[in-house]
User: Fold this.
Amino acid sequence: MSNKLKGIIASNGVAIAKLFLFSKEELVIDKSNISDQDKDLHVKKVEDAISSYFNDLDYKEKNEQNEEVLNIVRAHKELLQDPYFVDTIKEKIQNENKNAELATNETVEQMVMVMSALEDEYLKERADDYKDIGFQVLCKIKNVVPKDLSKLDEECIIISKELTPSDTSNMDKEKVLGFATDLGGKTSHVSIIAQNLDIPALVGMQDVSSNIKGEELAIIDGNQGILIVDPSEKEIEDYKNLIEKEKEEKQRLEKVKNLEAKTLDGKVCEVSANIGNIEDLKVAIEHGCDGVGLFRTEFLYMENDHFPTEEEQYEVYKEATQMLGEKP
Assistant:
């Protein structure tokens, strides 16, 4: 008998595949203090770890094609260069005799707590970015090679307690057909990548990772927000038909996306998109939009870590209007 589990829809779509249970390493943090003589050594450990992870991100930035993944990589590079973040770690080592692991972990926890307390859902989700870079830097300090999803043997639906932006940006995009997680929100980087890759995703499922063993056949329905584990033959057949219909509908829409939007009585309608950056506009234009309805300019602030100057705003505006074939 099939088991239906509910989740929050992060990305629409339907997929059928075996479940792959993905769990991250549990890092045990050394909580011992260090002597004054070892302070410089531990500061260097942190600097080397940050530099090593920064180089990893630099390499990925040069070889990645997906715009959403590139946005995450660039955001993480900026966080690693944040003087407050780096200086706080060093101060804990120099002033409180914390070791490199403990100083890094405490600083990350502080940043996560601050971001999680914010009311804005988008900013609140950025706590995941701090947790992510903290984990990666700690792995470097401890000489641990973290597990990833870059090489998978077969098509699957990922099940995990939580997926970080690094997990989704490194995953085998040809093999991952969808994912479901205990934690996470609709505005997280992880959800945005799923939407960008056009694969179904469910988040906030609370305990899905502890209720499956892995290798079960399952259906993830990102339209209704359910994961069907061990589906019946009829459910499989019904969903296969649904997948085929969705494929046909996408093909139909692809053919008409650039046609003029006109009602039966001859009225022409403008199809506009709400965007937060130029990448959003590129996707909108690819899907046949005529213009921009709402430009969320606060995202420019979040991407640049400062309020955009008039010149910077104009450059974005100019690029957007040129892409739409209009005069700035």
Observations:
- The first strand starts at residue 3 and ends at 6.
